Amino acid sequence: MVTKFGQVVTGLTPEQLPEYIPNNAPVIAIVDEQVQEWFTRHFPTIPFITIQAAETVKTLDTIEKLTLDLLSEEADRTFFLLGVGGGIVCDITGFLASTYMRGVRFGFVPTTLLAQVDAALGGKNGVNVSGYKNITGTFTQPEFVLCTTDVLSTLPSRVFNAGMSEVIKAALIADVTLFEFIEQHAREIINKKEPALSEIIHRAAQIKLDIVARDEKEKGERRILNLGHTLGHAIECNVKNIMHGEAVSIGLAYAAKFSQRQGWLTTADVLRITALLKRFRLPVDSIIPVEELHETMMKDKKKSGVLLHFIALTAIGKAVEVDIDIANFKFLILNS
Length: 336
Ligand SMILES: NC(=O)c1ccc[n+]([C@@H]2O[C@H](COP(=O)([O-])OP(=O)(O)OC[C@H]3O[C@@H](n4cnc5c(N)ncnc54)[C@H](O)[C@@H]3O)[C@@H](O)[C@H]2O)c1
What we know:
Rossmann fold
């Protein structure tokens, strides 16, 4: 079932996608090389540039290269950029579109589960600089985000499961009934079966968009979307080859244990959360020493003064921000 809220449309068939592409502007697509064949099958007339999706490619060098590609295509301010790929392509395309000639129109066709429920939504974009993740970027909303589960059929299970970490995060933040739905339909979701798959995408995306609508620039409430991310970022910086969603999963498990120590979650709640993450083969234990994580935390961009905005849970389905002195972080969060 096609559902539209804000700029996001879910439940589309690939045949329906071209209807949404502007016909009043020249369009150029930035396409993840892994979905090039799928893209050309469904958008045979749109010119495109392919990129390889890797964190090492999410850099200012790539922005420079793509800028030169656009110039050689004689793209001016009237052009529309279409990002077709996972979170990496969406982040790169969003940043490129926000800065190329001081800003051109853009939209996304996200092709990973994580991008459909998270990275393509909310208007944040950016690239990494010298190992600092997403340190340079803008808040600029895409004109549309078009989600079809058809493109997820080629997604390797590890990448799909990494996306489930963000779906579970959304449920933990704001919707216990979504959490229960995932528990009850885990098998169908793992097998990418409808209607369960579209249902979780739609509901997780809506949770994020509702929060972003109330706090677009992350001055307050939007920070709850960082549940699992403070630690997740530190893990991503320290561990090669870990996926964003996998690092977030470890962060979610630690946030749950922290919340239990505050007396907000029960032991049973924590077990339920870790069991659901494990159901999707997601890691829940840190694989690197606590000292290394602590070092990285000290330079994490979410630290403000000496206080760290840490997101915890007061219940499954209810997130809360706790300001923690960075010096106590190791003791409070990591030692569990
Ligand atoms: N801007 C935001 O708000 C936001 C939010 C969350 C994450 N992110 C960013 O998103 C990135 C992670 O995104 P991701 O998990 O989608 O990773 P990704 O973009 O690296 O994609 C994962 C892998 O899947 C491949 N792929 C993509 N679509 C495919 C398909 N349909 N079939 C087969 N293979 C496919 C890619 O080539 C890549 O190898 C990180 O850089 C993270 O920082 C941004």
